[in-house]
């Protein structure tokens, strides 16, 4: 049963991924990619990594919707419905992507994978986290937070409607909110 | 077949109604809205959700095209009725309901003959550019559409979007979209020709249609009659003025997305206009007014929007509540708050039998609606769609008030 | 906590539809009262049926250069997301599937609504509809983080992501008692997720119906009906998360689930009609600088209590 499901999702994931190159609308391409990711999430669940699988669904839907918004925003296109290819250098892109896929797929078949010894752990997600991070989980979490804060701070400082635009060059002006009224400042 | 007919009759018992009003059709619209509320027939927000298109007011050639286009988007089974005056409302709505119940099972047939809003042949119709409606697509034939890019290979024959700088300095798509005249809680006959980027209005020109002719403005009718030498009581004029404020208030509440409060405002409006005794009207009003004044959310949502300073207001010749609001904070909140304050004062006097004199001003002031239209473009440019809708509703210009001189001066020629 | 037999998968969509129907009936009754009409139980119950029949026999329409694929996928995804999320919803002591990662699954399925509403708004190639779709994405960005923190708070207190486990952890004290902020924020974000009531801006009247502006016939039924199902499932989830699930005296667990769900749903619908629709240009800022810190604080308090216990 799970083998059948595996193949169904695998084929769908690849087909959807390939459609990203075939479809000519920004919106459809984005959602084809999302469908591909959702199939991958199903594969991850089949591996017994429930948590990771569901989190992939959660993150990818949000990410792809936001990506669709940005892609359409930046591409001249009447509401994205104009036929528009998603790649430049057609042959090159095709060779690269199909080639990469072939190499990876060949790797799966050719590599001499070790035989399983022992039973799978009770909670594979936890075990995977342990194997990847070991005792450094807390460090990595903290680091992730710091990185995220850095990104946000950089954007706030850099954007033309950010801190200096609101408070003036010496940051002493009264707050000038381009879209006032939110939390009453 | 028997089952289908029975189902159609069952569903047609509560049809969804799209009301399309011409500027002179206020009385008819009020009558229709009253019947809808009493019967519990919902008002459709767009043609797609309607079964019954109700055109109120006298025929207006300038608007017929818009109404026909809205009608073209109403899915079957459907019916269309015309309500020229207030007395025709009940009969016309009944007629529409029976027409719906008896409608041919046209769904299949229709879906082929009208595959889309407008359809492909419609796109080559030169008049299509004036198609402003709830569906507001890319407005292909718009008179300020740029020339190139309307080749045959474009999807549906629609024109390519243009680009323009946005408020963050990015170059993004922009579309030309006419707003109105078939929109919920929208001034009758008004069309705004807008350039939008996302939901930000970049450029706004006031257009619209109003049949030039006799003064047929409903809200200022008592003043008009007094001017022409008829005896008009203060009470009658006060009722009209209060009704106008309540109607505008209901529009603001509809646009802000508070259907229950809007419904209650309309109930008070209908009671005022139906000559209900002052005490009864006042008690219903104070309950609603209290709720609105207590609502911090409502204030939070309308504060700081569309600020019209008193200098700008005076310069444009704005009068009445909008001018008085500009002396306070001048925003949307101030404008609806002024209506509340004036209603508090007006409603006890609805039974005053004294003769109407010049010191009782009409609902939108002596200057009428033309100055309100004049200040709109500056206030709307750069706003987001929801904000723009609120600003328009907070002025609620009445196109029927425009005099023939004002029409000649080009107030609607944007 | 057990799992219901397999046939419950078939029953679930119908149960959800019935619950959504009841919610629409309550809403219709409240609206009738505001409009000054007499409200009868029979009338309120028949009214949604008329709407359903009307939409079933109504004509479906398309628009010029519509993206039919994404449009229809978006419409269908709304009820599918609602029913999928309801899979982990416990009814008494049984759920269709009591997944070990139930809370995350629930949130993952809710998130599908983001894509669904955006696609539904995008599909018809209409300005109003598209603005409605974008409004929902903005709304999602505003409500999703507070929503997640509210969910995480309940999961932290129970030390499990299994919804059944969260119910069991409340056998002594309902979570609503010592995490009221999370409860309120949860209900707020539940309404936002179902783009209903004060969060209806994506389908706003000012936009002539927004993402639903071009919908008619069965399309509208699926989308709007799915929206009500989303509201029902999101509100119903507050019962196992914060209100002790099926626990209560005298009555059996399934009856308590029913009573609590009905009470919360009716309260939410009643309250929702008492507020105007919040716009995201105002609410997003409120969500990010008020609600998120509040929910993080709530989660912190709960985490400290759990550690100290």
Structure report:
The complex is a heterotrimer of chains A (185), B (414) and C (309). By secondary structure, chain A is mainly α. Chain A has helices at residues 2-22, 26-46, 50-74, 90-110, 124-133, 137-158, 163-167. In chain A, helix 1 (2-22) runs antiparallel to helix 2 and helix 2 packs antiparallel against helix 3. Chain A starts with a helix and ends in an 18-residue tail after the last helix. The mean pLDDT of chain A is 81. Chain B is an alpha/beta fold. In chain B, helix 10 (278-294) runs antiparallel to helix 14, helix 12 packs antiparallel against helix 13 and helix 15 runs antiparallel to helix 16. Chain B starts with a helix and ends in a 6-residue tail after the last helix. Chain C has 309 residues and is mainly alpha-helical. Chains in contact: A-B, A-C, B-C. The interface between B and C is large, with 73 and 55 residues.
Notable features of this structure?
heterotrimer; A: about 0% strand; B: about 425 residues
Strand order of the largest sheet of chain C: 1-2
Number of helices of chain B: 17
Order of helices and strands of chain B: HEHEHEHHHEEEEHHHHHHHHHHH
Oligomeric grouping of the chains: heterotrimer
Helix share, percent of chain C: 55-70%
Number of strands of chain C: 2
Give the count of helical stretches of chain C.
11
What separation lies between the terminal Cα atoms of chain B?
A: 52 Å
Radius of gyration over C-alpha positions of chain C, nearest whole angstrom: 19 Å
Map the helices and strands.
The complex is a heterotrimer of chains A (185), B (414) and C (309).
Chain A: H1 2-22, H2 26-46, H3 50-74, H4 90-110, H5 124-133, H6 137-158, H7 163-167
Helix pairs in contact in A: 1-2, 2-3
Chain B: H1 2-12, E1 17-21, H2 26-39, E2 52-56, H3 61-73, E3 79-83, H4 89-101, H5 107-113, H6 119-122, E4 162-165, E5 171-179, E6 190-197, E7 200-208, H7 221-227, H8 234-256, H9 259-273, H10 278-294, H11 296-302, H12 310-316, H13 320-327, H14 332-346, H15 370-380, H16 385-395, H17 404-408
Parallel strand pairs in B: 1-2, 2-3
Antiparallel strand pairs in B: 4-5, 5-6, 6-7
Helix pairs in contact in B: 1-4, 8-9, 8-14, 8-16, 9-10, 10-14, 12-13, 13-14, 14-16, 15-16
Chain C: E1 2-3, H1 8-34, H2 41-57, H3 68-86, E2 94-95, H4 102-122, H5 127-158, H6 163-168, H7 175-178, H8 180-193, H9 217-242, H10 253-272, H11 280-308
Parallel strand pairs in C: 1-2
